[in-house]
Amino acid sequence: MAEQSSKKTKVVDKWKLKSWYSIIAPAEFESREIGQLVSADESNLINRVMKIGLGEITGSFSQSTAYTALYFRIKEVKGKSAHAIFVGHELVPGYVRTLARRRRSVMNQIDDVVTKDGVSLRIKTICISGVKVSEAVRADVRRALSENVKAISKLTDYPTMVQEIVFGKLSAKLYNGVKKIGPIKRVEIRKSELKENFA
Fold first, then answer.
1. pTM listed for this prediction
2. Residue 72, domain extent
3. 74 part of a folded domain
């Protein structure tokens, strides 16, 4: 009868093999640390997407920051720092629904734009009127939004465009471009998406 081996198999604690990495936002957000991830292999971090509230970055939890989510994709790891780029944002759906109340007209517009430095973006705009407006007015507003956002993009580089989208400057510019068309109450950039090439 063969003797059973008395040797015990050594258990490797995989957690101890992992390291913590600081996620660093791009220069548009002052290269701040926006979170941490743990991984046993830094290559597993590349192309990971992080979602973070705008208020967590700015430290200000006003209405605008509380309802804005930002998305960052990790593109490079240096030491224990994982550097990310901004790939888009969106307003919380519940907040968008509160804008579209009864007896108001809601105009949605989606545009593919190219910035001054050749970066392609998709920008989704929502415009709210104070009262119901005609289809002709809605069509004029959507046309003006589209023309203005494309014109502004052509004159603006991507880092500046990101800041204008996230901090409301682009919304204000678009509002000024449509407020004379009808009783427009509000313009918001509902969502933005960087057009990425993974080839």
1. 0.85
2. 17-91
3. yes
Please give the mean pLDDT across all residues of the chain: 89
Q: Quick one: pLDDT at residue 65?
A: 72
Are 68 and 162 in contact by the 8 Å Cβ rule? The answer is no
The one-letter code for the residue type at 91 is L
pLDDT for position 1: 46
Q: Are residues 146 and 105 in the same domain?
A: yes
Q: Which residue has the tokens 């682009």?
A: 170
How many Å separate Cα 80 from the centre of its chain?
Answer: 24
Q: What is the mean pLDDT of residues 152-177?
A: 96
Decide: 53 and 68 in contact? Cβ < 8 Å.
yes
Burial of 5 (0-12, 13-18, 19+ CB in 10 A): exposed
For the chain, give percent helix, strand, coil, nearest 5.
35, 35, 30
Hey, CA dihedral for 142, 146, 147, 151, is it positive or negative? positive
**More confident call, 99 vs 151:** 151
12 falls within a domain: no
Residues forming beta bridges with residue 83, ordered by sequence position? 24, 76
**What radius of gyration do the chain's Cα atoms show?**
23
